[in-house]
Write a structure and sequence with these properties.
This protein is mostly helical. Helix content is about 65%, strand content about 0%. Helix 1 packs antiparallel against helix 3. It is globular and about 35 Å long.
Amino acid sequence: MVPTVTYLDSRTIAEERSALLARAHMSLEVLKAKGATYQLDPEEQAILRALDELDFLEGDA
């Protein structure tokens, strides 16, 4: 298996973040609050994890 690297610019990260939040049907604040109290279903947890990864890539971690 060959590792793959994907480069994302700030605009692409913002678009991906918006798409993920639209899939979650809630704001980032609500998603994080539910995550802090273990109230996320598996799909919502995956979305929150992806948002955290995008924040890391953008340097907001």
